[in-house]
Amino acid sequence: MNDEYGDSRPGGGPGEDEGAATGRKGPAVGRRVLLGTLALGAGGLAAAPYLQSGLEKFLGAASQVDPTGISNLLPNGGGFRFYNVAASVPTKTAATYRLAVGGLVERPRSYTLAELKALPQVRTDLDVQCVTGWRVPKVPFEGVRVSDLLDAAGVRAEGRALRFTCFDGTYSESLTLSQARRDDVLVALRMQGKPITKDHGGPVRLYVAPMYFYKSAKWLSGISVTDKVEPGYWEEYGYDVDGWVGRSNGRDDRPTV
């Protein structure tokens, strides 16, 4: 695995938030620069909460343009790390965001952000576990159950799985229909009591509580019902399609649910 260092080649691995690696290559970095950068990050985490918030925003922006990958070594104030599978990610606002639900359904539909917010919301408070090893305890997520969107769309008899696509144009994920219908699988709109930021995959992301965080696709823009499972971005690199925490990818982490 890549230990969240930003290598998207086979043999590397997702350092999921968040969700994936950049695959960007850059110049070699000297030991002094590396240690200095890590010290800066440690100092920021030890500072007051308002400084941590600033560090989080800085690292999120820096990871988009950092050719060295050093910014990806630093956790932000919330304990997460920032990665992207695309070179850049467009910004979606309440006016421009859409979530398309289609495929093998009777009533395909496109939802605005306001329409998603108007639907019944549920909240979970569970640990987030990355397949590379780090864990963030008791992360609140709030949003709409995927099962509610499926019921509204009317899944056809031949529907067996879901394919999730993202507005970065690269990231994708998949679940079986029975997995997606769990009560702890959400189209998430809020995280840690706030609207999900772009750096964390907002304004809308997938949240799959019982699975490693690479299954919780960022920048969600499409849900398509299919007749079979279509492996997502990280599965194409060899990661397990059924990414249960502690029961997949050769890991024995404590389950999150």
Automatic annotation (TrEMBL):
It holds the Pfam family Oxidored_molyb. Residues 88-234 form the Oxidoreductase molybdopterin-binding domain. It comes from the Bacteria. Residues 1-25 are annotated as: Disordered. SUPFAM superfamilies: Oxidoreductase molybdopterin-binding domain (SSF56524). Gene3D superfamilies: Oxidoreductase, molybdopterin-binding domain. InterPro entries: OxRdtase_Mopterin-bd_dom (IPR000572), OxRdtase_Mopterin-bd_sf (IPR036374). Signal peptide: none annotated. This is Oxidoreductase molybdopterin-binding domain-containing protein. It comes from Streptomyces tremellae.
